[in-house]
């Protein structure tokens, strides 16, 4: 099975519970649409897990990009002090920064801003539309638009074209009711195939309501777990 998720925000234990719930195995694949870090207490532990999973395909979110921008600035000021730079980077993650190493930094730096497959595109915040309401090809879109622009989340934004767009960045509760994943179905479609949807809003706002969800691309069903203390 193929799954997609976004905005895990350092909730390593909750993410592992979700994988257990869906019975995630070596034969499955999960796409992660950015914002793996910050807010939660196990950002680095989550990165260590995801970036070493051969069947996890991750892209950058604005939070990872923010960390990398800080890293690039520190390296520019101290290009030969690798020990000092790493010590500085560890302080970015106040709860488990001691787990950070150069392997994680290097793997993070190699992550793309989007992934495009035959049936879908994964991006963090969304993509702009052209004058015909078609998706602008991601390769032509500025980085910060894909990372931070909130236009795509609006219900009235209905892109034409055959591919479904998976995105997060803004909790669904800010647009719709509740903390569930919102799959937007094409008019007249039954909803049994991913081609029946034009976009899927994935950010369940785990840091707000404690709910973390993923979407199965093959069954078009959402799966959820919730933190025990919420």
TrEMBL record:
| Domain Calcineurin-like phosphoesterase, residue spans | 4-176
| One MF term in the entry's GO annotations | phosphatase activity
Q: Which SUPFAM superfamilies match?
A: Metallo-dependent phosphatases
Q: Name one GO cellular component term.
A: cytoplasm
Q: Which InterPro entries match?
A: Ap4A_hydrolase (IPR050126), Calcineurin-like_PHP (IPR004843), Metallo-depent_PP-like (IPR029052)
The protein's name in its UniProt record: Metallophosphoesterase
Q: Which organism is it from?
A: Candidatus Coproplasma stercoripullorum
């Amino acid at each position: 099975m193929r799954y997609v998720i976004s905005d895990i925000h350092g909730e390593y234990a909750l993410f592992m519970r979700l994988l257990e719930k869906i019975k995630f195995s070596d034969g499955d694949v999960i796409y992660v649409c950015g914002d793996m870090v910050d807010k939660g207490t196990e950002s680095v532990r989550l990165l260590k897990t995801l970036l070493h999973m051969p069947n996890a395909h991750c892209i950058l979110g604005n939070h990872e990009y923010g960390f990398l921008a800080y890293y690039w600035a520190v390296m520019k000021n101290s290009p030969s002090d690798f020990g000092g730079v790493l010590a500085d980077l560890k302080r970015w993650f106040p709860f488990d920064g001691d787990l950070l190493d150069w392997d994680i930094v290097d793997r993070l730096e190699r992550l793309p801003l989007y992934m495009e497959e035959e049936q879908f595109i994964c991006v963090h915040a969304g993509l702009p539309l052209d004058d015909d309401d078609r998706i602008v090809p991601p390769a032509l879109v500025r980085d910060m638009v894909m990372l931070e622009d909130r236009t795509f989340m609006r219900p009235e934004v209905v892109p034409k074209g055959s591919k479904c767009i998976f995105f997060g960045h803004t909790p669904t509760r800010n647009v719709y009711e509740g903390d569930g994943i919102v799959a937007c179905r094409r008019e007249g479609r039954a909803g049994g195939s991913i081609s029946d949807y034009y976009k899927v809003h994935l950010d369940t706002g785990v840091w707000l309501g404690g709910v973390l969800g993923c979407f199965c691309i093959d069954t078009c069903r959402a799966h959820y777990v919730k933190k025990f203390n919420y």
